[in-house]
Amino acid sequence: MSKKWMITLIFVTVLWMWIQPMASSPVYSQSGGHPDSQETEELIVGFRDDTSVDTAFDVHRKMGMQVVKSVRGPLRFDVVKVKGKTVEEAVQMYRRMPGVAYAEPNAVFRLQDYFPGYPVYPKDPYYITGQWGVKQVWADIAWDKARSSSRTVVAVLDSGVDDTHSELSGKVIKGYDYVNKDTNPMDDDTQFGGHGTQMAGIIAAQTDNLSGIAGMAPYAKILAIKVCGRDGTCSIANIAQGIQYAVNHGAGVINMSFYGYQSSTTLSNAVNYAYSKGVVMVASAGNDGKNRVTWPCYYSQVVCVGATDMDDKKASFSNYGIWVDVAAPGVDIETTRRGGGYGYASGTSPAAALVSGEAALLKAQGRSYANVISAITKTTDAVPGMGTYWRYGRINAYRAVQY
C-alpha cells in the first residue's frame, strides 16, 4: 500500500471514530428529556389510585430500586434512586409493571436570574430610586383602589425566604423545606442575595414604612416553600409537593420563578390539582432569549410571563413566543436581599413576581380564578411584540383592578 493511501486510511478511520458517538446520541422530543435538562439519577413513579401500598412496595422490590420518598394525598407517586441500569431503561421497565400509571425522570428546573450579565447589585436601602417597574404597570395608582389583604396568601415556591428582612417581617408564613426536608424554609441560601427573598419583596414588601421599597401587593402574606437548592436547581418532585402544600395551606396565588425544558406528568398533575381548587399560578418564561416553550409556563392553567425593559421592549434575555401570555418589567427591578438591604434583580423571575403581586390584588377583591385570569390578560397595554413575543401585552395593574 502506498504512503498516500495509508495516510488516507488513517484519516478516514479517525474521522469515523469521531463522528460515531454523535451518530448514536439520543434524539430528544419536546415531551421527553432535553439536553438542557440537568441529568438525574432519580425516577418518579406514579401509581394508579387502586394500587395498594403492598403492590407498590413489591414493584420497587422486583425492580431492585431504593425508594427516596413517597408522596401521598391528591398526588400519588414515589421517588426512587436508579441502580444497575440507565434512567431510560428503568422508565421502560416500570411502565410495564402492574399498578404503575407512569414513570419519568425526576428532572430539575432552574431559578430565573442565573445568567451572565444581570447580577443583583448591592444598594443603599435608604436611597430612593423610584421603582420604575411598579410605576410602569401603574401599581401605585392601582393602590388607590386595592392593596390586597392579609387574608390573601401568595406561595413563593423558590429557594426560601429570609423573614428577618424588615420589609418582610411579620408577613411570611413558614411553610416547608423540601430540599432539606424540614420545617424551616427561611434559609434562602442561593447566590445573588437570595432568589426567593427577592421574589417575596417584589410581591409583598412593606409599604408606607418610610424606607426601602413597596411591594405590588403590600398587604398580602407570603407562604414560604423551599423547593430549590443552593445551586438554583429545583426537582420536579419538590415542585409538585410544593404546589400541593401551597394549595392545602390556603394559598390563593402560587409564584414559580423557575423553568425547565421538560414536560412532566407529575408536574401536570400538581398543576391540575391547584387549578381544580381555583389557585392562580404564575411562572416565568425563561432567560435564554429563545422562542422555545418551557414548563411550568407552558401549561394552559398557568399565567406565563415574559420580560420587558424600561422602553417596553422585549428584554434581550427573555424567552418569547405566542405561548407566553403576558409581559412585565424584568430589568433592574429593585427588591429585597437576603440578610437585609436591597438590590436589583433582572430576568423573567422578577417579571413573574410582579404578575403574582397583581394577581394578589385581584384575589383580595374576591374574584374567581377565571375573573383574575381575564383581568390580568385583557387589561394589558399594547407594547411591541404583542401577538408575537407574547399573546397579550404588558400588564397594567390599575386597569386590572377596575376590570
From TrEMBL:
Domain (Peptidase S8/S53) ranges: 151-366
Record domain Fervidolysin-like N-terminal prodomain: where: 41-106
Keyword Membrane part of the UniProt annotation: no
Database matches in Pfam families: Fervidolysin_NPro-like (PF22148), Peptidase_S8 (PF00082)
Catalytic residues as annotated in Swiss-Prot or TrEMBL: 158 (charge relay system), 195 (charge relay system), 349 (charge relay system)
Source organism, top-level taxon: Bacteria
Keywords: Hydrolase, Protease, Secreted, Serine protease
Compartments it resides in: Secreted
Membership in a protein family: Belongs to the peptidase S8 family.
Protein name: S8 family peptidase
